[in-house]
Amino acid sequence: IYLQPRVSLFDYSIIGAEAVVRWQRPDGTVMIPDTFIPLYERNGRIIDLDFFVFEKVVKFLAENKKKGRKLIPISVNASILHARNCDTVEHYMEILNRYGVNPALLEIELTETALLESHQFEFVKQVLDGFRRIGIAVALDDFGFAYSSLSLLKALEVDTLKLDRTFFLNESKRSRNIVCNVIQLAHSLHMNVVAEGIENMEQVHALREMDCDLIQGYVYSRPISADEFEAWREQYEK
Question: What is the DSSP code (8-state) at residue 157?
Fold first, then answer.
């Protein structure tokens, strides 16, 4: 499990992180998700991988609690295939109860493209509502990438909107105006906004002017191992 920090644009403090998974081969080579997630999706094991990542994150939070460290919310990705399993929410809750971790410290992310391509939208909505009912926040990832983004905002209750990194590639005045208006729209719907894929301080300052809530990207840190993350956070907060 690797973690990438999220930085608040209010006071530049670390107030969250996203968990991503890496596959380490016997020879030490580390593979990124794009190289193996499609395999898991094809063979149906993606749900097992989701539960594995979630449990690793919950265990990490439980260990930090025992060590007296400051706990921050961690966001975890989930596959659309969970919509086929009516016991999904209960399984997540069982993991939380096993380690004694507060659900408010977790957030589940689903990509808007997966939602739009799903033929089980109502089931997906029920699962997301179930997460929110037990206190786990829900995030809509890659927002703005697909063509029907606004229809999802109408149909789904989500806590966080993650702006797709394509907004911040080859930026222009027009693209920044779009981002500014999306942020305002999200806030009017009581959502927090995370800008991901941010790579320089100019973007950070511009997003702060737009009242964006959180920044995630290489401008602060690439995804790093859990141990590296704690050392990085300690150094950052000095």
Answer: -
C-alpha of 36 from chain center: 19
pLDDT the model gives residue 83? 59
DSSP sequence for 27-89: TSPEEPHHHHHHHHHHHT-HHHHHHHHHHHHHHHHHHHHHTTPPP--EEEE--GGGGG-TTHH
Phi/psi region, residue 107 (left: phi>0; alpha: psi -120 to 50; beta: rest), is beta
Distances from the Cα of 11 to the Cα of 96, 164, 213, angstroms:
30, 23, 10
What is d(CA 64, CA 170) in angstroms, rounded to the nearest whole number?
A: 40
Is pLDDT larger for residue 87 or for residue 135? 135
3-state helix, strand and coil shares in percent for the chain, rounded to the nearest 5: 50, 20, 30
Token pair for 51 = 């539960």
Whole-angstrom Cα Rg for the chain: 17
At a CB cut-off of 8 Å and minimum separation 6, what does 221 contact? 4, 5, 232
Got the DSSP string for 132-155? HHTT-EEEEEEETSSS-HHHHHHH
Write down the pTM of the prediction: 0.90
Contact between residue 30 and residue 22 where contact means Cβ atoms under 8 Å apart: yes
